[in-house]
Amino acid sequence: MIRKMITRVFGRKTPAGPGEPAVIGVGKHGIHRDDISNGSRRTVETLQQQGYKAYVVGGAVRDLLAGLTPKDYDVATNATPEQVRHCFRRSRIIGRRFQIVHVSMGSEIIEVTTFRGHHGEVGSHAGNKAHTDDQGRVLRDNVFGSEKDDAARRDFTVNALYFDPTSETIIDYHHGLADLKQKTLRMIGDPKTRYREDPVRMLRAVRLAAKLGLTIDPEASRPIREMSELIENVPPSRLFDEMLKLLTSGYAVKCVQQLRAEGLHHGLLPLLDVILDQPLGERFVMLALESTDRRVRDGKPISPGFLFATLLWNEVLTKWDAIKASGERPIPALFLAMDGVLDVQAEKLAITRRIVGDIKDIWALQPRFEQRSGKRPYGVLEQPRFRAGYDFLLLRADSGEVESELGQWWTDFMNRDGDARAAMLLPPKPDEAKKRRRRRKPVAVTEE
Asked: Which residue in 141, 150, 155, 164 is the catalytic one?
């Protein structure tokens, strides 16, 4: 206890010998126990009181060091999932690829993981060997190990930092703090092997580099282009989660630019495959991503449905035009194009059903904005997804896809009421004249 108190007051940095971590005091790193969330601090303290090692790890420590506010907190411990669960009444074990424990602390959910060991090794907890596929991707990995093993198993050095809120020290096995200060994203271990174990790490490298303003180390960057096809082996649901993180990170524009630079954009989203060849589509998407980034930085809510609707719209337009050219009427052609694009996309990203519904609602509203006569504009205003569809229309106008006058008309129409709104209605076009509905002849009922 006295040693911990001295450490907290003065801080220390022990020299790291071969295989030994640097223990960095608060005077060097600047993170205090009050800087982390109450839930993560209580989780660590509870585990330590039960005799286990426990630290706040990974992204939360990295973001705090970079001056960012962490979105969530993870805890690593030498306690097994069952032992963790017995320490907390409100907890449950989840996961198949690697078991973790979700601990509920008030409104917080703290993710607690047991220190991971090397593949195939039987550590002190006698874990199972990792199961891999033909390409080497890890499918199931409940291999437990030591704190040192766990640090070696993490992907990047900046993610292998362990913060002990009790002593306010950081345990650094792989010089992650130095790499963060030098603005370098460095892989732990052989990059080719690590990418083969989990191809999503290539996307994660792009996201972290863009978010933190880091340069990917050449040793980690070089294999990405030649191994990018491994991403096709990642389950669509997991790929969708990672892409959603990338696009809602607040640095989506930088992420897309980095995806291009690393040769990773092919196959993820159809639009990203052809964006360089279609300037109009590129401007539309970049405007959408810039808007999303601003909202994230301002702390405003964002809609994944709106975001993916913008990313895929250029493909819908191309397919829509082709179907209309074949003789199909505009509205049925739009719905055929929508379904076709989303079906192709589902093979790459498992976009959730709810988000797909939002995407379709936004797209389906676009031709209705062209109808500015009679009662139709009033019906558009009453649509549940009107605001999202309207914002989408403004992006189309800003990018030059449609006339800016159309967006301005709807802005004015939305903000007026009564006679002022009615005065804005345009006369019906000749092809919009109401057609008499044919009455159905009553079907004669014969008795047998």
From this structure: 155
Contact 21, 175 (CB under 8 A): no
- In tens, the pLDDT along 179-231 reads 999 999 999 999 999 999 999 999 999 999 999 999 999 999 999 988 988 88
Distance, CA of 168 to chain centre: 30
Residue 72 annotated among the catalytic residues of the structure: yes
Instruction: Calculate the alpha carbon distances from 164 to 14, 23, 55, 112 in Å.
Output: 15, 10, 5, 14
Sorted by where each begins, the domain ranges of the chain are 2-183, 279-426
pLDDT at 45 over 90: yes
Token couple for 105:
């602390």
So what's the pLDDT on residue 436? Answer: 42
Cα(205)–Cα(250) distance, integer angstroms = 16
From the list 118, 119, 178, 186, the residue with the least C-alpha distance to 152 is: 118
Burial of 89 (0-12, 13-18, 19+ CB in 10 A): exposed
Other beta carbons within 10 Å of 3:
9
Please identify which of the residues 72, 361, 391, 398 carries the catalytic annotation.
72
Amino acid making up residue 427 = P
What type of residue sits at position 399? S
Residue 259 parent element (H or E): helix 252-262
> Looking at 34, 35, 63, 74, which residue is catalytic?
74
If one compares 16 and 418, the residue with the highest pLDDT of the two is 418
First to last CA, the chain: 97
Check if 150 is active-site. no
User: In this predicted structure, what is the pLDDT of residue 126?
Assistant: 41
Q: Strand ranges (DSSP E) for 144-188?
A: 161-164, 169-172, 184-185
- Model pTM above 0.90: no
Position 255 pLDDT exceeds 60: yes
For residue 179, indicate whether it is catalytic. Answer: no
Residues 6+ positions from 420 with CB-CB distance below 8 Å: none
Residue 103, strand partner residues: 91, 110
Encoding tokens for residue 427? Answer: 């006369």
Percentage with pLDDT > 70 across the chain = 83
**Amino acid identity, residue 318?**
T
Distance between CA atoms of residues 360 and 383, nearest Å: 13
Fold of 279-426: cca-adding enzyme, domain 2 (1.10.3090)
Residue whose token pair is 């291009």: 260
Q: How confident is the model at residue 141 (pLDDT cuts 50, 70, 90)?
A: low
Architecture of domain 2-183: 2-Layer Sandwich (3.30)
Cα–Cα distance measured from residue 186 to residue 175, given in angstroms and rounded to the nearest whole number: 10
